[in-house]
Design a protein that fits this description.
By secondary structure, the protein is of the alpha/beta class. The protein contains 22 helices and 29 strands. Helix 5 packs across helix 6, helix 9 crosses helix 18 and helix 17 packs parallel to helix 19. The protein is globular, with a radius of gyration of 31 Å. The chain binds adenosine-5'-diphosphate (ADP) and magnesium ion (MG).
């Protein structure tokens, strides 16, 4: 086989294109070529398996010598195109025709690509983390001789622009002028692919590769897309300033085909036995309790939090209305708590079990942080980079140290948590990326420990609008409690002693992962009984503290529906029952009875979640009145110090409370800081 010359190789490949028949007896590639002509396509997509069936040696040679075989393949495809549609072939020209190979047998993780693969065809799987803007790349440069005006056309294949070696007409050797109008360009883009979080060995940093894409492959993938990429591994010399090429090379992949993987999280493979096992678990009488008990078995207690994790991992199906509006199905959960209360452990666990789970800290380790960013590469290229919530699209993003997130992320997260997209517009790049992600966040209280004498908003350094986008919020407190402390200590000691769980979880980790992936596929519908239950609770909550401001919004009703639906999904039910609704209400009620209580009155007042409990509302009005007086007719900016003085002088609050009031106004967006210490009304 390897003796075949280039032209012989083209003939063999032409015969393959002409004669290969699919199982149903169709001439696969003749059909594809006619379709190319009809649709104005430039690429012929070849399934590697077809080649393997047709000629094993040829298929192997494609892997080991892709440059030769692909070149012959293009010749063959162009010949076939000429036979089928001579005028179309003429119009696009051979240079613009590509043969793309999909479905290679071995699909490697990026980590496995080594020097052994140099100049070979490989298929790698991973997630696209960055994409550059498009650049025109010259493939055939036109030059004019400065001396006599003679034109010369030079094929471009290397990184550096190649000039003519001399004029064909006169004796000029050096001076040529590039004629852009006559130069032929193709679109060029660089994308960066990284190991998917679920392929990453524990404790390792993800590895990445730069992939160059040309022609109709550009924009085939967006940041956050999971892809299978076919390409040829190359070594690019690295340069040292002033010293030329180094002995060190950098591997890159020249993209041949990009396949964006389907919408469903597909990483978890289920066998028939798994499916049977999953169904039998769900049909046991105490299935729900057993599932909750199986969540994070290394962590003692926290049944409510574990239930929340279970529900959020599965979520509710997202709904698309006929007009294209979508209703979020993802459930967002926040843990606020003292240090050492296993928040981080719970978050890491959730990221490990969830299909497409990802754990990150609010500080973020990359430029893109939690959402997305536009970054400038060393070579001056602008790249769009996806952050955690985009990478965990259709999965769970566990965000630790949520209170420490960057300001850019704060505003972008609003969009993500409500619209489920992340938009960026910077440096000429405008993009909207999908972020249909459930967020499990953990935050530390401002004062180190949760202060029971203050409301949740004052305990947290988080913008209020962001807080209201969580369906469930829990406070984890580290309070000395003799009995619980002893139990917890025993639990931890036992785990350390044996290196295994104290009580074997009813469902072991791998099976639970499969269970969760499977449960995500069901789409239960609400029954009238469940609807009544949810509505009843919602209306009751609406009537609490209904004076000047309504604190329970339809958002909470949607949250209730999501939770009830998720519970039905957990049990693989087709219908959301009354019992599901009762469980959902019970979770939400538990949350309201802790974070929704105004510490000043001891009563549930959901105004606290908006930073405006009833007990403070009158003071708030007072504060706004004073602010108005201070800014006067001509609306000057108000000095914070002055405002506090005025507030204290009313006798209604002390210095500290007035300071806090100023902060609350600032954080809620009623006023903003124009310059340090000075404020203006919005
Ligand atoms: P946080 O993020 O809330 O500050 P961590 O998740 O880092 O706390 O937990 C600190 C340590 O305490 C971890 O090793 C964790 O396993 C242990 N720990 C705390 N609470 C529990 C618990 N309820 N059960 C088991 N281990 C716990
Ligand atoms: Mg922590």
């Amino acid at each position: 086989m390897s003796e075949l010359t280039q032209s012989k190789l083209s003939e063999v490949l032409e015969r393959f294109l002409k004669s290969f028949k699919s199982k149903s007896g169709e001439n696969t590639y003749e059909i594809r070529i006619s379709r190319m002509i009809a649709m104005g396509g430039k690429s012929l997509i070849v399934d590697f398996n077809d080649l393997l069936i047709y000629d094993v040696d040829l298929a192997n040679r494609l892997i080991s010598e892709p440059d030769e075989v692909l070149e012959s393949f293009v010749t063959a495809a162009y010949e076939a195109l000429r036979t089928e549609g001579p005028s179309y072939a003429e119009k696009i020209g051979k240079r613009n025709v590509s043969v793309r190979i999909r479905n290679l047998q071995d699909k490697m993780s990026i980590r496995k690509v080594t020097t052994e693969h140099l100049d070979r065809l490989v298929a790698v799987t991973g997630i696209v983390v960055r994409t550059s803007d498009l650049k025109p790349m010259a493939v055939e440069a036109a030059f004019k001789c400065v001396k006599c005006g003679q034109m010369a056309h030079v094929d471009q294949t290397k990184m550096m622009l190649k000039h003519p070696s001399g004029c064909e007409h006169c004796d000029e050797k050096r001076n040529f002028e590039l004629v852009e109008k006559e130069t032929k360009f193709v679109d060029y883009q660089v994308i960066r692919m990284q190991e998917s979080p679920e392929e990453l060995p524990p404790g390792q940093l993800p590895q990445s590769f730069d992939i160059s894409l040309v022609g109709d492959l550009v924009n085939a993938a967006r940041p956050g897309d999971r892809v299978i990429l076919t390409g040829v591994v190359r070594a690019e010399p690295e340069y040292s300033q002033g010293r030329g090429k180094l002995r060190l090379f950098r591997s890159t992949i020249e993209g041949n085909y990009v396949e964006v993987m389907g919408k469903e999280p597909e990483q978890i493979q289920l066998t028939k036995e798994d499916e049977a096992l999953i169904k039998s678990i769900s049909s046991q009488p105490n299935a729900y309790e057993r599932l909750i008990e199986s969540v994070a078995p290394a962590i003692y207690g926290y049944e409510t939090q574990k239930e929340a994790i279970l529900l959020m991992t599965i979520g509710a199906p997202r709904q698309v209305l006929p007009d294209g509006t979508t209703i979020r199905g993802d459930i967002n959960v926040l843990f606020v708590g003292d240090p050492g209360t296993a928040k981080s452990e719970l978050l890491k666990y959730a990221a490990r079990t969830a299909p497409r789970g990802l754990y990150t800290s609010g500080r973020g380790s990359t430029a893109a942080g939690l959402t997305a960013a536009v970054v400038r590469e060393k070579n001056g290229m602008m790249m769009l980079e996806a952050g955690a919530v985009v990478l965990a699209d259709q999965g769970v993003a566990s965000i630790d140290e949520f209170d420490k997130m960057r300001t850019e992320d704060r505003s972008a997260l609003h969009e993500c948590m409500e619209q489920q997209t992340v938009s960026v517009a910077k440096g000429g790049i405008v993009a909207t990326l999908n972020a249909r992600t459930s967020i499990l966040a953990a935050a530390n209280p401002v004062f180190g420990k949760y202060d029971d004498y203050r409301n949740i908003v004052e305990n947290l350094n988080l913008p209020i609008p962001l807080l209201t986008r969580f369906d469930l919020i829990f406070i984890l407190k580290d309070k000395p409690d003799r009995a619980r402390d002893e139990e917890l200590a025993k639990h931890i000691l036992e785990i350390h002693r044996k290196g295994e769980y104290v009580k074997t979880p009813p469902i072991e980790f791998e099976l639970l992962r499969k269970y969760l992936a499977y449960a995500k596929k069901t789409t239960p519908v609400l029954t009238p009984e469940a609807e009544d239950r949810l509505l009843d609770y919602y209306l009751r909550m609406r009537s609490i503290g209904s004076e000047a401001m309504i604190t329970v919004t339809p958002r909470q009703l949607e949250g209730l529906i999501r939770l009830a639906t998720a519970r039905a999904r957990v049990l693989l039910h087709e219908k959301v029952t009354e019992e599901d609704a009762i469980r959902a209400v019970s979770l939400v009620r538990r949350m309201f009875e802790t974070v929704g209580v105004d510490v000043k009155t001891g009563k549930v007042d959901l105004g606290v979640l908006h930073g405006k409990p009833l007990s403070e509302r009158n003071l708030l009005e007072l504060a706004l009145d004073i602010f108005k007086q201070l800014e006067g007719r001509d609306k000057k900016s108000v000095e914070g110090k002055k405002f506090i003085e005025e507030m204290v002088s009313t006798g209604k609050m002390n210095n500290e409370e007035a300071t806090r009031m100023l902060q609350t106004l600032n954080r809620s967006g009623a006023i903003y800081e124009v310059k340090p210490g000075f404020y203006r009304k919005l």
